[in-house]
Design a protein that fits this description.
Helix content: 25-40%
Radius of gyration: 19 Å
Number of strands: 10
Largest sheet: 5 strands, parallel
Shape: globular
Order of helices and strands: HEHEHEHHHEHEHEEEEHEH
Strand content: 15-25%
Bound molecules: guanine
């Protein structure tokens, strides 16, 4: 029997993928061609390679084209900027991402801000961040957009609710806080971070708790209000003695928190698939706009 406490990101992402695949098929039928997403990856960080491989697979699942530009860890900033310049000017590429983190010797801000805003499907450039803050059409960052879409499609009311966001990263905590408090979404948002004193005093007030702090199983039952909705953005590999050698956990101690909540996103199968499908959505929008 379906567990109606679980917010099924995998299922919602599958539905969105079908919608996107239908639009891609329509573009192909009309002779416009399939949208094309590229990814730049520098070095051989295992997690980054896995993420990029999932993004490629998802592209192919919906009929999109994908290309990966792999640069070795010793590449210079200039090498990376040359790749960016090439992608900005290549009419075959509708949108692309630069997988983060970059090696320490490369200035991440300089690289990201060199991406053409028209192809910035991660929504990381200054103009996209500004447009998002103004509530204007833009490429929304994938994870925040995925969270909002997941709540909407799971029929979880956000307007007027107190949403507590744990984490203030540029990729998740900050943009999701801005997007939730915009007119039309209408949540009341409290943002907590690593320097927040007595963080549990805030988290216990949350109708909806969004956790994006990068600490495995940090959130325990005593930090959550009875009946709250919990959205877990974390993903960590924990080594164990299983055949695989590891298992996956989030930022929330799922088993501890589960009895207390009304709804919760699992890890894996919650926010992760929504992030990927949001990137596909942005790529589709880019292809529609740029062609
Ligand atoms: N690294 C972790 N999350 C992300 C993301 O959403 N986009 C990119 N480009 N890199 C990441």
């Amino acid at each position: 029997m379906a567990d109606n406490k679980i917010i099924d990101g995998k299922l919602v992402a599958e539905i969105m993928k079908k919608e996107i695949a239908a639009e891609v098929a329509d573009m192909i039928d009309k002779g416009i061609g399939a949208p094309h997403l590229a990814a730049v990856i520098v070095g051989d960080d295992g997690a980054s390679l896995t993420y990029v491989a999932s993004k490629e697979k998802a592209c192919h699942n919906v009929g999109m084209l994908s290309s990966v530009y792999r640069l070795n860890a010793k590449s210079t900033e200039e090498d990376v900027l040359n790749t960016i310049n090439f992608l900005n000017n290549d009419p075959e590429i509708d949108g692309y991402i630069v997988q983060l983190p970059l090696p320490d010797h490369i200035n991440e801000t300089k690289v990201i801000q060199s991406i053409s805003p028209n192809k910035d499907v991660d929504g990381f450039t200054l103009s996209n961040i500004g447009l998002m803050q103004l509530g204007e059409p833009c490429f929304s960052p994938a994870t925040p957009f995925g969270i909002l879409e997941l709540l909407k499609r799971s029929k979880i009311e956000v307007a007027g609710k107190h949403v507590v966001v744990m984490g203030r990263s540029n990729i998740v905590g900050t943009p999701v806080s801005v997007m939730l408090s915009r007119k039309g979404i209408d949540a009341t948002v409290t943002m907590c971070h690593s320097k927040t004193k007595n963080v549990e005093e805030y988290t216990r007030q949350a109708d909806i708790l969004i956790v994006a702090i990068g600490h495995p199983e940090f959130v325990k039952a005593d930090m959550v209000k009875e009946g709250a909705v919990v959205v877990d953005v974390g993903i960590h590999r924990i080594k164990d003695n299983s055949e695989k050698g590891y298992h996956i956990v989030g930022d929330v101690d799922y088993d501890d928190v589960y009895p207390k909540v009304s709804k919760i996103t699992p890890v894996p199968g919650g926010v992760g698939p929504m992030t990927i499908v949001s990137l596909l959505y942005n790529t589709l929008m880019a292809a529609k706009k740029n062609r």
